[in-house]
Fold each of these.
Amino acid sequence: MSNRLAITLLIYGMAAFVIYGIGMIAVLATPLQAYAEYAIPGVFALSALLAIPIAWKVAPITRSRHQRKLVREDKLGAPYPES
């Protein structure tokens, strides 16, 4: 499993819950409340689907600062020992 995929899986849950919360507020605070029986499962499905690309885009951003710091401090290391 690549680092990006692992970070994406960690971020996915958080992104899905934030999107779900925003959607629930939109449903319950608007006239859509009358259709809550259908709108809430829709919000759930939409949040699950929208969180995938959002988490995939955010994952490399979360590790870029750490990698830049390692390059700056010259601690990234070569892939093979120099002889």
Note: The mean pLDDT is 87.
Amino acid sequence: MKKTTQALITSTALTTALLASASQAVTLNIPCTTGTGFVSCEKTAQEWAETRGHSINIVTVPFSSSDKLALYQQILASKSADLDVFDVDVVWPGILGAHLADLGPYTQGAENEHFESVIANNHYNGKLVAMPQYTDAPVLYYRKDLLDKYNQPVPKTWEQMTATAALIQKAEREDGNDRMWGFVFQAKAYEGLTCDALEWIDSFGGGSIIDGDGQITVNNPKSAAALDLAGSWVGNITPQGVLNYDEEGARRVFQGGDSVFMRNWPYAWALGNGEGSAVKDKIGITPLPMGPDGKHSATLGGWQMAVSKYSENVEVAADYVLYVTGKDAQRNGAIIDGRLPTIAALYEDPDVLAANPHFANMREVLENSVARPSSITGEKYNQVSNEFWNAAHRVLSGKSDGADSLSQLESKLERIRGRRW
């Protein structure tokens, strides 16, 4: 009799717990970016939903970081719950932080597994408003087979890269490959061009647009020389169409076998070596070239996950964020998509290293990274970046030279700053 009663009590308690769990099941609106990462994003979200007993609604968002930021600002400004979570660029915590939930009460110390500098970047007014999903820094991709064919070394400087690209492009075209270009990169007027152009001017010793004290430093001869060199590529070693290339535009040309060099982020490695790629097993990577003073520079990138403070399910959304930024998810992202983890222990994981032998090179790249001036400019960063990429685009499109474009840029940045950033 006692056993029957106990079994009944246990069964009733379990049923009650299951009913309670079912009654608490919610549907989260999750963003997934168009492009190569969409399938992985959707798969991870579905796994979380099945594990937790919740449901998800996938919202497709733009690949372009500029377009994505504009969409997110519109959603958050209206205090809408159209998205419960957001994927956040490394420069956005200062821009969007006022609208993001404090994740501190939910992490249970998970942030301590990640690189300290990345976690520090994800704070806004002392609150942890985002968790890192992966970090990023761009590299120079090159065709190993073509450099070997023409007995050319891996270039160390931008000038060497320019000369090698021109030499191989000319030789390949004379050999009948009239689609070959020397170098492709991101020259569309958007945030991606801010990253590219910042690398050029910083590697030339021109600084990082705005220094740590908030002084506008970009208008100088070294920065102008860097932009003028980049402008000389367009129409010569780089197709005119580069003016509309984002990361995917550049990747398609390089992966199709039609470029000697490419500046891009690490995600392109796995795709370039995938089945069906024209350059499978023909790719090498190296740090981005140095400027005249012998300095490598790579713009620090990466994406975070954040929770909208206007979500009706902040706690559940926080659980989702911790799931997709956790060790297992980052490990899978590294192995499958070639993403750079922010959890230091994963750089010693044998499966991660087996899938990404080039991660050994990425340490040097990350050590020579340069941050965009988002922390110092805060909510004005988007305006600053917009003016900077337009200044670079004017030079690339032949509408201005470096000196004139940077002089205009300085005046516009002074107006944006006003009395203070």
Note: Residues 2-23 form the longest helix (22 residues).
Amino acid sequence: MSELRRDLVSAASLAAVGTGAHLIARGIEARFKTGVDSGFFPELVSAALVLSAAIIAGSALRRRQQVETDTPSGSTWRVWGAFAAVVAYVAALPIAGFLASTAAFLFVQISVLAPAERRRPLAFALVALVAAGMIHAIFRVGFGLPLPRGPF
């Protein structure tokens, strides 16, 4: 299967999932009649999925036959490293808690995905800590959602 066809099939699949998610989200009964209700974020995610599908299809059609045949060096270990980080994050979440697991996950993902010549461990650690703290504050304080606590 050509890369163009694969991208178009992926975009169509993503658009179908987004449309299905939107239809399901429309059926969620609102607990509150004003403001943001329980169906708002699923509808927002479904819109993001359809928008992503449109972007993928548009970029695939734009670059039609301009496919690079060479893969960047080290891309295979980056993919497996990113996958291993996700698996480790899911395993560590109930044990270490949301803050510690998320900060470690973000640091590892940034480090794995960054090119070797642009790796800045201190900057990555700072970004991971600030992002984990902000995400925790948004979901815990802002939305009042319970998150895995862990020892921290």
Note: The helical segments are 3-26, 40-62, 75-96, 98-113, 121-142.
Amino acid sequence: MPVDVNALISQYGYLALFIGCMAEGETFTLLGGVAAHQGLLHYGWVVLVALSGGALGDTLLFLAGRRYGTALLKRFKNHQNQINRANRLIRKRPALLIIGVRFMYGLRIIGPLIIGASGIKLRKFLPLNLLGAALWAIIFVTLGYLGGQIITPWLAVLDHHIKQLFWVVLALMLVWGMRIFLKRRAGKKKEEAGRD
């Protein structure tokens, strides 16, 4: 029975978008915009869900930063330049950092932790975080929606190739599995023959 991808996107698209925006972001908002362009999801709901997921994800990271900030930030040894840059920006322009952290390369995940560790109050963080999440969601969902005109024809081609690749990988796995099974079976027969 073939899988109806459109029905899956329509049924689980908002949930996947919400979870994706909590964790990562741009890729999911762009794909949400493409799905809205294709009529699989509603543009307004995609923006709202992306905004909600992004805001909640950053709030949870902010709270983790408030509670475990110093210890967590010490683990990011490769990101000390970004951490130092963010700390300088927090001291000079905290509102700008809170609103813009989603748009700053290298600070998408670690940024809210740094902001939380800085001691900024939750009541100051929340409205600025919502404003930043709204701007971010509108911009990236709209880019995905507008880019859907260009991306949609490529998705059909990609879907076709992915299906072919799936069958090739499945055939290789079956052959590999049979090989392992036959090898083990031959090994057991030799072992049994050695006992007799």
Note: Residues 122-195 form the longest helix (74 residues).
